[in-house]
Fold:
Amino acid sequence: MDPKLEEVLAPFRLLVKQQGDVVRKLKEEKAPEIYIKKAIAELKTRKKTLEDKELDLAPKDNFDRLKLEDLLKQRFFFDQSFAIYGGVNGLYDFGPMGCAMKSNLLSAWRSHFVLEEQMLEVDCSILTPEHVLKASGHVERFQDYMVKDLKNGECFRADHLLESYLEKNIADKKVANAVKSECKRLLPLVESMDKETLANTLRQYNCKSPVAGNDLSDPMEFNLMFAISIGPAGTTKGFLRPETAQGIFVNFKRLLEFNQGKLPFAAAQIGNAFRNEISPRSGLIRVREFTMGEIEHFCDPAHKEHAKFSSVADLKVLLYSACNQMEGKSPELVTLGEAVKAGLIANETLGYYMGRIYLFMTKMGVDRAKMRFRQHMSNEMAHYASDCWDTECQTSYGWVECVGCADRSCFDLKQHSKATGVRLCAEKKLKEPRVVDVTECQPQKGILGKTFKKEAKVITEHLACLDETLVLDLEHRLKEDG
Structure:
């Protein structure tokens, strides 16, 4: 970067670094959760201020997105679905040129990943029974907050509405500086606000419907999956799949058998997924029906080396590590080999796929200078993931996540195995027999049945799910208290 620009950005970087150090210290000292959350919120505010300043100072592209979108619709690359009926937000149809372009892109993806890597491709059902998505956690956690126009019933996503209102205040010259400062402070925190905080903030700024100007309801939880009933009786609840990955996980046993019981192997699926977005926006970026390509690579958790890692080890990619984000530093050009060796990228398998993603993106024409891999910070990371990187592209909408690449352990397989009782794991032959002590709970079903009758089955199932620590604790308490 230009030294003069760096000189301007230096104070902003310092503020981010100082707050990052505060967050680290609080975590090391195991401070109360409320203090850590406040510190992270302040860190996000400072990061957002730094990113805005970087965008202000960056060279501007001579690009008019609206003109391009109008041209694409005129040439019928794509258009809003059911346009002659007024259209439906978040649904789009592809015309002849759009279909050709999409077909070529999917063909290139299949060739680059599925064929070159000899992956096992599947094509699974879009209709998914409710209990499958309960096990994966989608029924409980796959939701956003929405608010409703109290007069006409129109719905809006609460966080997006608040973000738009804050941005409008910041841009308005008539708004007092003190109010602008408060809006700037709140803007990066909106995404992580809980329902009560969202409600209070919306009331504080007297937010109204952006369309009709009417009063709004308090935020309410809204599951983003399309609910359906399967069969004429309507007794089997289900959803249109929100992602293609679960079809791969539930077929793991069959795929492992197909691969002759050997690890590692990768499975892939291309297909449509559905998310009932509250207020779709950003053109084709946030829609309700979309095509996605997904890969799940299964390997021995004790051996995450990759035989072909050397083929991508020398690739230089722009990495925006969690550490750099905490310290207010810019992304850095690093070879994948160096990043894995230093432990920045968790393992060779993750690094290999990041390399393959980079090669595919550049082959498709993405500008290297406008692409980066951003590492999830600890407060973003899923509890079951050990490392996660998003491939982001700089667009007219800002930095947009295009691909997610994560080491998500065997969380999904464990969840489906627990829900069904089907063993979803691989085995390997040892050179020599190994004796392992196993601690497990073996309930006496006869006594439990006589004592608890109808509840006996639930108790037995609960005891079977206890891990070693809980079993030992239970044994200790039984010995002590009887």
